[in-house]
Design brief:
By secondary structure, this protein is mainly α. It contains three helices and no strands. The protein has helices at 2-25, 33-36, 49-79. It is elongated.
């Protein structure tokens, strides 16, 4: 079981960093912090709809995986 705990901790860290990077890759929608950092300027080289949808799916998948690892780590900690 210590190996399972170690694997879950590593996956939690990797998925957390991956989720942060994926969220930062998203196109700014305006009106928020993205405007403060220059995201309010619209560019002609914006991402296509398919690429944005795929990025959304990957981001949600990484976030759900992170949540499942967090719950799994909590269960392992409680019962072991």
């Amino acid at each position: 079981m210590p190996l399972l705990k170690l694997v879950l901790q590593i996956m939690l860290a990797v998925l957390g960093l991956l989720t942060i990077m994926l969220v930062l890759l998203h196109k700014g929608r305006g009106g928020g912090l993205s405007d403060m950092f220059g995201g309010g300027v619209s560019s002609s080289a914006s991402a296509s709809g398919v690429a944005e949808r795929n990025l959304n799916r990957i981001t949600v998948g990484a976030a759900v995986g992170w949540g499942m690892c967090a719950v799994g780590l909590g269960i392992v900690e409680k019962f072991l």
